[in-house]
Amino acid sequence: MSLIRQIISGAAWNIGAQVSSQVISLVSMMFLVRWLSPDDFGLIAMCVVLKGLAFVFANLGLSAAIIQKKEIDALYLSTAFWASLGAGIAVTVTVAALGPAMAWFFQRSELSGIVAVSSLTFAFGGLTTTHHALLERRMAFRSLSFIDLFVQLGASLVGIAAAAQGYGYWSLVGREISASLLSLPFLWGVARWVPRFRFCRRRFKDLFSFSMYVLGSNLVNFFNRNGDNLIIGKFLGASALGIYDFAYNLMLKPLQYISFTVGRSLFPALSQIQTDKAQVRDIYLKSIKVISLITFPMMGGMWTISPNVIPLVFGEKWLSAVPVFQILCLVGALQSVGTTVGTVLLSQDRSDLAFKMTIFVSPFVWFAFLAGLPWGIVGVAKAYAIVSLCWWLVSHSLTNRIIDLSMKSFLLQLASPACASAIMMVVVKYASIYIDGQMGLNELPLLLGAKISLGAFVYCSVASIMHRRQLSIAFHGLSAKLALARK
């Protein structure tokens, strides 16, 4: 099979697996939110800050170094494996010991046990991070997608079964542990690589000279992304945090489906052609075009129909999450494109600049969280949205200079999807007044179907008029350029 056909075939399988994964996640959430309370989700969300921080250190940033490096041998991989495993075990012990401190901080005794048990995922993760990075380096995205699918299916079944038996928040812990255990045989079996009992300090130093900036960026960026959980959990309580975290994750999952699918293959491809700025620019512009064509209307559509979807699918007790979810949808549209900043910088061997940028924006993000606190979770979401917009413009301006890309050319790629999405939102919003009056709230499924159909029709019509030629170029040109980049 030719390289072009491999890329196209792999992308098709990857998208199919990702769609299936999202369906599993949605179905799982529908069961879990009916058996579990916001307080159960809030308790798990309280652990996110500590566990997410631990994951940053458990990885050491070595995965990105393995993917970015042009040439790598077995000694590099074995060194990375033992370093990751050692870090994972150390983090497991450290996190388990910090469980009582978490319980004291949030004034919830249950957190001590939750943290101790869930810390095992770090040790298990140390056994698989190198194999996962190796498969990404090989651009084996079809295999990785199927692994993610099978792991999520198995872990979701464990979580649902535990929740049905009345285990409460422990069902969410069990789902997490199961995912770590299930991924181990799949990744080792597909990668077909076994580490040797060798560790080279020189190889580690070479890898870490790149990954230490990735580690620093991930560390600072983690606090920026999870500071809201920490502040809301401390000052507003578990129930408020559970609602906020529910809204954030509901927004994030469909966003990850698109951005992750495109961005996952973008990093190794750009790393291979990092010295060819013209080709990097071309692939990058086509990538953000594809992302925005899908995520902008997706986020806009979710914003307009969320007042109907959330109570219908998840129950009336989650209705208070609607305003937070709507604000975060607008943030998500920005982040869908903003995630490519790190990809471009790392592929250009500028992990140092990525680290400096995250350090710079960190105080502004935390100030926003604190400034919005007096207005509750809605105020925190609004403050976060304002900072996200400002930083989105600054970060892209700095990153585009690295690949000699003008801000005008960058924004032009996003203009037509943004305009088409805005028109769709306005039409559906005002049409909803008529639709709601005709059908009534007792016919929510039909009302929801009417709004979705109207939104899809409006967006597709406007998009086809505004950039019919660009649609073809964006989707078909990206596959061809990625193929050429690998030659």
Provide an overview of this structure.
It is a single chain. The chain is mainly alpha-helical. It has helices at residues 3-35, 38-46, 48-59, 62-68, 74-97, 99-106, 110-118, 120-126, 129-137, 141-164, 170-191, 201-235, 238-272, 277-314, 322-338, 340-347, 351-372, 376-402, 407-439, 444-485. It has 2 domains: 1-227, no CATH class; 236-487, no CATH class. The protein is built from 20 helices and no strands. α2 (38-46) packs across α13 (238-272) and α8 (120-126) packs parallel to α11 (170-191). The protein is globular, with a radius of gyration of 22 Å.
Question: Outline of this structure?
Answer:
Helix content is 86%, strand content 0%.
Spans of 5+ residues with little confidence (pLDDT < 50)? Answer: 1-8
Helix content: over 70%
Mean pLDDT: 81
Order of helices and strands: HHHHHHHHHHHHHHHHHHHH
Cα end-to-end separation: 14 Å
Q: What integer value in Å does the Rg equal? A: 22 Å
Category from helices, strands and their pairing: mainly alpha
**Amount of beta strand:** under 5%
Described by strand count, sense and barrel closure, the largest sheet is: none
Count of distinct structural domains: 2
Question: Which short descriptors sum up this protein?
Answer:
487 residues, disordered N terminus, 2 domains, mainly alpha, 20 helices
